[in-house]
Amino acid sequence: MKRPTIHDVAAAAGVSRGTVSRLLNGDKYVSPKARVAIERAISETGYTVNRAARSLVTQRTGSVVMVMSEPHEKLFEDPNYSTLIRVAIRMLAEHDLSLVMMMAGDEADRERVVRYVRGGHADGVLLVSTHAGDPLLDALQSGPPAVSCGAVIGRETVIPYATADDRLGARQMTEYFVGLGRRRIAMITGPMDTPGGIQRLEGFTDVLGRRATSKLIAHGDWTQASGERAMTELLERTPDIDAVFVASDLMAAGALAALRAAGRRVPDDVAVGGFDDSSVAVSTHPPLTTIRQPLAEMAQATMRLLLALIDGAEHVEPVILPTELVIRESA
């Protein structure tokens, strides 16, 4: 069967081909009567837009590329990413845009991303988990609009972003531990070239001041395995720890495993707090006391920034959302 064309739609609607073309390309100056007739004709004929042809006219590709600057395996381990992807797909679909997922965890991946974006295949770029000093940032500077889910260190005034108030959340958890009477409070941070790594540590030290010594701080990389390693390190250095704030739920799950292996009871011997309130927080034993960052709202805000830039906005303001302490059985 012959594929329906724009000429078939025009004939069925009783309008000119030009009128159909203007409607398909988003022109507002099409009469309501013609609009209804064209939409009915599209439905009846089964016509679908040829995106390649439309791109020649509109200079739009109809797609947004999500660039995740982490190793491939982290995409499937961390449930935060699935929330972002789900929200992005839904919001882009509402604007007849598609999501293209690309990884940029190593040099070969980054080169592939640069070729794709510079080749004119995307209307916008959504940056995820971008680390400070990432060479990809300079390479994408002259490309389509870009936004980030979470600030990019050193590019806060250049790349628009939406994020949770990481420093506030860390203060909330640390103050909660202090209120419980815990005296030897440790922390497992995220990577220190990410805003979550830096700002959550800042919130921790805001509350403890000089008591937040280097012996009480260990570093992870957001993975469960790194949380287990960091907790083991802390127990070896300072065995009298009675609380630990872990900068992500996934790392906190690793910390719980290390505490079990060391024979420490949670929360009796060591209280444990996480950050995210992801699905991990309710699947650990015991369930995690944690800081809720509004992941879906962050993703929505990030996508609104990007869609505004794609539609021609010259400037958008960053969005910072509040966090909330969620108390469960681990502390």
UniProtKB/TrEMBL annotation:
<protein>
    <submittedName>
        <fullName>LacI family DNA-binding transcriptional regulator</fullName>
    </submittedName>
</protein>
<dbReference type="Pfam" id="PF00356">
    <property type="entry name" value="LacI"/>
</dbReference>
<dbReference type="GO" id="GO:0003677">
    <property type="term" value="F:DNA binding"/>
</dbReference>
<feature type="domain" description="HTH lacI-type">
    <location>
        <begin position="4"/>
        <end position="58"/>
    </location>
</feature>
<dbReference type="InterPro" id="IPR000843">
    <property type="entry name" value="HTH_LacI"/>
</dbReference>
<keyword id="KW-0805">Transcription regulation</keyword>
<dbReference type="InterPro" id="IPR028082">
    <property type="entry name" value="Peripla_BP_I"/>
</dbReference>
<keyword id="KW-0804">Transcription</keyword>
<keyword id="KW-0238">DNA-binding</keyword>
<dbReference type="InterPro" id="IPR010982">
    <property type="entry name" value="Lambda_DNA-bd_dom_sf"/>
</dbReference>
<dbReference type="Pfam" id="PF13377">
    <property type="entry name" value="Peripla_BP_3"/>
</dbReference>
<dbReference type="InterPro" id="IPR046335">
    <property type="entry name" value="LacI/GalR-like_sensor"/>
</dbReference>
